[in-house]
Amino acid sequence: MALIEKQYYWIEKESLSYPNQITSEPIEKGIDVTDHVQRQARVLSLSGAVTGPDAAKKLGYLKKWNDNGIIVKYVGRNAFTGIVSGLQSDHEYTTADGFTFSFTLTEVQVTESSYTAKLPTPVKAQVVKIVNSGVKQKKSKTSKGKGKTKGKKGKGKGKGKGKGKKGKEKVEKVKFVKGSPWAT
């Protein structure tokens, strides 16, 4: 007797296989070169029989596990956890109050999401204060260009834009902090 998800089944045969995927590359002479081996999911093939008044109920469990992809725990000669696949049931005249069955359990690997609900506190960027912002021109607070200016032919009125001696603005030199690479 074997136990599959708290249900007892008579198991006649257990066949456990350990498949690998082997990559190979052809070469000019000789056999192919193998450079990588990767383990694949293990597979447990089971065959057995169920008889008695609750045979239909047990077949219903097997169908449910197979159809819904439920991970089941098997304990018999081997202990195994996997998904039921390839369920086959035979209903013959030799087993009047039950059936024979065969199916495979395929190993699964359950992983967890890397999602976290709470993000870490933000990391402040290290920012250096700007010491040198270059040479700046200050705007004059005096009234600009309220007088009349003449064009090439002496016509028109317009506002001057600081041309001439009066329009020239002072340029202030920026002072650097001592020890900075721009200080001389």
Could you characterize what this model shows?
- The chain is mostly beta strands.
- The model has no long low-confidence stretch (mean pLDDT 80).
- It has a domain of 90 residues.
- 10% of the residues lie in helices and 36% in strands.
- It is built from two helices and ten strands.
- This is Phage baseplate protein.
- It holds the Pfam family Dit_like.
Labels describing this entry:
184 residues, mainly beta, six-stranded antiparallel β-barrel, 2 helices, Dit-like_N, Phage baseplate protein
Order of helices and strands: EEEEEHEEEEHE
Strand content: 35-45%
From the spread of the alpha carbons, the general shape counts as elongated
The total count of strands amounts to: 10
What does the largest sheet look like? 6 strands, antiparallel, barrel
- Derived from helix and strand composition plus strand pairing, the structural class reads mainly beta
Low-confidence stretches: none
Strand order of the largest sheet: 1-2-5-8-7-6
Helix content: under 10%
The total count of helices amounts to 2
Rg measurement, Å: 43 Å
Tell me, rounded to a whole number, the average pLDDT. Answer: 80
- The end-to-end distance, rounded to whole angstroms, is 92 Å
